[in-house]
Design a protein that fits this description.
By secondary structure, the chain is α+β, with helices and mostly antiparallel strands. It has 3 domains: 115 residues, no CATH class; 110 residues, no CATH class; 166 residues, no CATH class. Helices cover 46% and strands 20% of the residues. The chain is built from 13 helices and 13 strands. A 5-stranded antiparallel sheet has the order 3-4-5-6-7. Strands 1-11-10 form a 3-stranded antiparallel sheet. The chain is globular.
């Protein structure tokens, strides 16, 4: 289930959490996010479990997307009641559409050769289900607490299962079909970075590798410990990425002041990066070699459209950027969760740039573009506007040129087959 598919959750706690992270000019730990959420809304009762669950949803580390909740692991490990069995049967039918006559089928239990409890649901010898409950102290616990086998008309299947922990109980879910089309990147709404505490631990362990005379096995142990620190959410801090900003904007309906504060923080946090890339723009007819154009420029890495945000805001109407970006987010909301990061960045930047350019350059009632009106725009501000436009245009042309050549190469490819 995507975030935009859960409108109720999106417009309440998720939006509040994204806004708090976005407004901060530095990455925040889970504990700090929880404190700020309670401060913002004392009635929210945001405990650590709620915050961690939200952050895990916003920064997934697995390619597998949970589907329907099938059963609570603890219910079957402990004493099982008839109502628990009945719910399991209902969930299996709803998820896998087996079409069995469930009123004549009753789950029963056996013990596997490894000593694990096995839930068995049998229609006949050629159609049955086995769910093995794995012990929590086996190595397989790392990837799940249950393993399911379907035998349908004699053919064997192993539908993947996902384990999630909520409060003190563990739940087993099916795997959503969206797993096959939505990568981790398309479901990530925050930038996770290592905290100073985590960085210090990693630095010390790297120094151990460099300074100590270690055997290969000893070095591998330390490298494994470093990876464990990097993957441990206890040491993570979070900041908003572009996908998270757009999700936040689709849910934040009224508070343009908070949106403005978020945009200001994102603009200050974002850093310039240098782009150096050679792009093929055609073929030399004389020798058949590729013709290249070398692109070398600087652009803000994550939110290029917010370059010079504070300076440009002085010459724009009140809440101009907040309202504009909210409209852009609503225009793109059907594509936020199935568009790559780079394509999202291009789409938002091109729309924002056009609106800004139209505002400053379209002829108004005075028959003079605003940017040339010395009574309303000071020369230094005009220079900043033009600098911004040239900066963004370079980025947009670079992206467009790559796309044009890709399409031209594709056209030539099909043209060869057409002529043959």
């Amino acid at each position: 289930m995507t975030l935009l598919g859960r409108k109720k959750g999106l417009t309440n706690s998720t939006v509040r959490l994204l806004g708090i992270i976005g407004e901060s000019k530095v990455p925040l730990s889970a504990n700090e996010i929880r404190k700020r959420m309670i401060k913002y809304d004392p009635s929210s009762n945001s405990d650590w479990r709620f915050v961690y669950e939200k952050l895990e949803n916003l920064t997934p580390t697995s390619d597998m997307i949970p589907g329907k909740r099938l059963f609570c692991y603890d219910d079957f490990v402990e004493n099982t009641h008839n109502d628990v069995n009945k719910r399991l049967i209902q969930k299996l039918e709803a998820e896998y559409k087996l079409g069995w006559k469930w009123d004549k089928i009753q789950p029963y239990f056996e013990t596997s050769p490894r000593g694990n409890k096995v839930v068995k649901i049998r229609k006949d010898d050629r159609n049955f289900i086995e769910i093995e409950l794995l012990s929590v102290n086996t190595e397989k616990h790392q990837s799940g607490l249950a393993k399911m086998i379907f035998v349908l008309n004699g053919s064997k299947f192993e539908p993947p299962l996902i384990t999630e922990r909520k409060n003190t109980r563990s739940y087993v879910r099916s795997m959503s079909s969206e797993t096959y089309v939505k990568s981790v990147g398309l479901r990530t709404y925050l930038f996770p970075t290592l905290s100073k505490e985590g960085e210090d631990i990693v630095s010390k362990k790297r120094n151990q590798i460099q300074s100590l005379d270690l055997s290969y096995d000893e070095e591998q142990v330390i490298r494994h410990e470093i990876e464990e620190i990097k993957n441990n959410r206890h040491y993570w801090e979070y900041s908003l990425n572009l996908r998270g900003l757009l999700i936040y904007l689709t849910g934040e309906s009224t508070d343009n002041n908070r949106i403005e504060k978020t945009l200001e923080s994102l603009s200050e946090r974002d850093k310039y990066v240098r782009i150096n890339e050679s792009v093929v723009i055609g073929i030399n007819k004389d020798n058949g070699e590729d013709l290249h154009r070398v692109w070398s420029y600087q652009i803000k890495e994550d939110f290029p459209f917010l370059s010079h945000y504070n300076e440009l805001k002085k010459s724009l109407p009140e809440r101009f950027s907040a309202k504009l970006l909210k409209n852009i987010a609503l225009e793109l909301q059907d594509h936020i969760e199935d568009t790559s990061n780079e394509d999202l960045k291009y789409e938002v930047t091109s729309r924002y740039y056009k609106a800004l350019t139209d505002y400053f350059w379209l002829v108004g009632i005075s028959f003079t573009p605003l940017i040339l009106d010395r009574n309303r725009v000071y020369p230094e501000t005009r220079d900043m506007i033009i600098k911004y436009q040239l900066e963004i245009l370079t980025y947009l042309i670079h992206r467009k040129q790559k796309e044009v050549f890709r399409l031209e190469s594709e056209r030539k490819h099909y043209l060869r087959y057409y002529r043959s």
